[in-house]
């Protein structure tokens, strides 16, 4: 049974989301504040977090940032902050998806299932792939990425995106193809989310994100991506 942590200070929202999750076979935990959620993560194994951004003790964005320093658990932001800038900010901080209030609880469950599907099936053909003489390494057994020997903290979607490129070095992908691989064929959101994930990865693994070595965007016949060749 998958465990979902619902972090929201509004009792009615928690009750509705938890009720629908349990109805669909999930185990649900609840937290009414950011520090409570962080404390629970130290004691509980969680498969996904549904995170409100406007919490009474600390901003949800800060909670997300702190989670990302210790854990790659998928995060679905569920918030009243509906602007494009807020969505981009949330994704850049490490969220895997972003849903605004008011919401249909059935969509929340559907997105939870979609995120879990995406984060379940990523793997490499080899146990470990090395690029640029070992400067970038992907360990599929540990689901870890190392840059210059240091572990890189990636969200599940960022890991899956990097993995998709690493499986086919030098191949060019369109944005739509990457959205299918990372978000799933049933994803009906904005596929430009892929652009933000690419930007996030570059800032984490590239020495100069504006002149990337590992992930290169190819302009011309639509947007494509390619990874540098492996060793």
Automatic annotation (TrEMBL):
InterPro entries tied to this protein: CheY-like_superfamily, OmpR/PhoB-type_DNA-bd, Sig_transdc_resp-reg_C-effctor, Sig_transdc_resp-reg_receiver, WalR-like, WH-like_DNA-bd_sf
Domain of life: Bacteria
Residue ranges the record marks as coiled coil: none
DNA-binding region of this protein: 126-227
Residues covered by the OmpR/PhoB-type domain: 126-227
SMART domains: REC (SM00448), Trans_reg_C (SM00862)
Pfam families for this protein: Response_reg (PF00072), Trans_reg_C (PF00486)
UniProt modified residues of type 4-aspartylphosphate: 52
Protein name: Response regulator transcription factor
């Amino acid at each position: 049974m998958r465990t979902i942590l619902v972090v929201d200070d509004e009792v009615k929202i928690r009750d509705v989301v938890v009720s629908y999750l349990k109805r669909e076979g999930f185990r649900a935990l609840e937290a009414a504040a950011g520090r409570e959620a962080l404390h629970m993560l130290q004691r509980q194994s969680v498969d996904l977090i549904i995170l409100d951004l406007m919490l009474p003790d600390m901003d949800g964005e800060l909670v997300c940032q702190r989670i990302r320093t210790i854990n790659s658990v998928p995060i679905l932001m569920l918030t009243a902050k509906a602007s494009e800038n807020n969505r981009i900010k949330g994704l850049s901080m490490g969220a895997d998806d972003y849903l605004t209030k008011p919401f249909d609880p059935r969509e929340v469950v559907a997105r939870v299932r979609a995120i879990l599907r995406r984060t379940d099936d990523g793997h490499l053909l080899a146990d470990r792939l090395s690029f640029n003489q070992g400067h970038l390494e992907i360990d599929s057994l540990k689901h870890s990425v190392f840059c210059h020997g240091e572990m890189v903290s990636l969200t599940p979607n960022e890991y899956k995106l990097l993995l998709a490129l690493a499986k086919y070095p030098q191949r060019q992908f369109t944005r739509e193809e990457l959205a299918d691989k990372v978000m799933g064929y049933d994803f009906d959101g904005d596929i430009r989310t892929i652009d933000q994930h690419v930007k996030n990865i570059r800032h984490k693994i590239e020495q100069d994100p504006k002149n990337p070595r590992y992930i290169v965007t190819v302009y011309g016949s639509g947007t494509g991506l390619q990874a540098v060749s492996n060793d």
